[in-house]
Design brief:
The chain is built from 5 helices and 5 strands, in the order H-E-E-E-E-H-H-E-H-H. Helix 1 (2-26) packs antiparallel against helix 2, helix 1 packs antiparallel against helix 4 (163-196) and helix 2 (75-100) packs antiparallel against helix 3. A 5-stranded antiparallel beta sheet has the order 4-3-2-1-5. Helix content is 62%, strand content 10%. It has 224 residues and is of the alpha+beta class. The chain has a domain at 1-28 and 75-192: Butyryl-CoA Dehydrogenase, subunit A, domain 3. The termini are far apart.
Length: 224
């Protein structure tokens, strides 16, 4: 009962992390224009994402344009594209493997040991996808903070942390938490199986003692 609830909780947390990873990959709010010093044009907001940049005017109109060239992007955004795509694929694979290994899935010719290995693989994939997602999110955030406090950077080019970065941290935490839940569940199952399959100690019964005693007395009478 507890194991089933633990599996369902891990699957739900992993599903939230997977959906969040997909959303972060497509969101344009990675870098948001900063309104500081002389940059007081508050009716226009600039969003920069992995695939496009958008300009929103007075909360009414929004125009988005896909980047013309990948090489024109900064190195952190170029690397973030590949890493976020890899994280999305890994999270999806982990979610599907977790469904296959769920306790409630009654498959033919399946054993607890095989399901335990499947759950362990799902947990490791969840942790790996969360770690892969953390790399681009932290990298872009570090670049934004470094340029924000750099006096050599023009004020109009300074950016702030967008909503996609915060959602990326939450999604990565959910993926890692789901992986930890599945790994702990697999560990608990191994301990339960080891206790359940331990060979019991056999003690000789009263009939066995009586049989041995009779046999020994009978053998002595033969010698006499």
């Amino acid at each position: 009962m507890v194991g089933g609830a633990l599996q369902i909780a891990g699957l739900l947390v992993g599903g939230i992390g997977m959906i969040g990873t997909f959303a972060v990959t497509g969101m344009p709010q990675w870098r948001v224009s900063a309104f500081i010093e002389n940059n007081i044009i508050v009716f226009e907001t600039i969003w920069e994402g992995l695939w496009m940049h958008c300009i929103r005017q007075a909360n009414i109109r929004m125009q988005c344009k896909v980047y013309d060239s990948v090489l024109a992007l900064s190195p952190d955004l170029q690397a973030s594209r590949g890493l976020m795509c890899a994280g999305s694929v890994l999270s999806f694979l982990a979610f599907m493997v977790a469904i296959i290994g769920m306790k409630c899935m009654q498959c033919a010719q399946s054993s607890w040991q095989a399901k335990g290995y499947i759950i362990l693989v799902a947990g490791l994939l969840f942790i790996l996808s969360g770690a892969v997602e953390l790399i681009p999110v932290c990298w872009v955030a570090s670049t934004i903070i470094r340029d924000f406090y750099n006096p050599m950077v023009n004020v109009a080019q300074k950016r702030e942390l967008g909503e996609a970065l915060y959602l990326g941290w939450v999604s990565a935490f959910c993926l890692i938490a789901a992986g930890a839940i599945f790994c702990c569940f697999c560990r608990c199952c191994e301990k339960t199986r080891s206790y359940g399959y331990s060979t019991p100690t056999h003690y000789p019964t009263h009939s066995q003692h009586l049989y041995r005693k009779t046999e020994s007395s009978y053998s002595k009478s033969q010698y006499v």
